[in-house]
Amino acid sequence: MGEYTAFEGELEIRQVGGARLLSGTFPYNSVGTTSDRGRVRKESFASRAFRFAIQDESRKIDLLVGHDFGKPIASRQAGSLRIVDGDDAVRFEATLPEEALTPSWVLDVEKAIANKTMVGLSPGFRVPPVSTVPNAERLIPEPGNPGVQIRQINDAVLREFSVVTAGIYDDALVELRAEELDELDVVTFQPRGIFQWL
User: Fold this and answer.
1) pTM for the whole thing?
2) What percent of the chain has pLDDT over 90?
3) 175 forms bridges with which residues in the sheet?
4) Which of 13, 26, 107, 139 has the highest Cβ tally under 10 A?
């Protein structure tokens, strides 16, 4: 079983010509904080931590609802998910099926993003063993608070991104846009976040 972490991200749905697009951003070098059974955990992904799977075009990467492989939104292998890795973030753009062919869970996610109940982005990943990648992860002291350790992930095998209830940052910004004719509606809000360890 992989690990799932909900982090600050941006999601956007927009209409471009006849296609509906869902785009998102998962930032690198942000620190997420959560409490799990009374333990406070902090975690950060180094720049291009997901490069191994992103650069290997033969690797299947999906966009899902809540880490449920039974609820896919898009897939790189199917040609409906485009992923770009950068030093600051991973960005993706998912082409949604035409409305008549859209599964009910995708329509539900679109509504949940619009009504602010699903606003987070979470990667499903595995950290390779030390025998394969010696420095895949390490603990680093928190700046200004050396008693607190941050789990810094330098290399992880990305399997999927999921739209989840919320990210772990109070200042996460999510925008939902609908572009029809020359009208543009923008909804912004700042959700509270969650963090999952499985």
Assistant:
1) 0.77
2) 35
3) 188
4) 26
Residue 114 has which token pair?
A: 């619009």
**Structure-token match 């995708």, residue found:** 106
Residue type, 14: R
Poorest-confidence range of 71-80, 88-97, 160-169? 160-169
Give me the long-range contacts of 30-33 (CB less than 8 A, separation at least 24).
Answer: 30/169, 31/142, 31/150, 32/5, 32/6, 32/7, 32/8, 32/167, 32/168, 32/169, 32/193, 32/195, 33/168, 33/195
19-54: pLDDT as tens digits: 778 888 888 988 887 766 667 778 889 999 999 999
CA separation for the pair 63, 92 (Å, rounded): 9
DSSP E strand boundaries for 46-156: 62-65, 68-75, 81-85, 89-96, 120-126, 137-142, 145-153
Distance CA 127, CA 3 (A): 8
160: Cα within 13 Å, side-chain hemisphere: 22
> Strand, coil or helix: what is 102?
coil
DSSP state, residue 48: T
| Each residue's pLDDT tens digit, 99-136 | 788 899 999 988 888 888 887 888 889 999 999 999 99
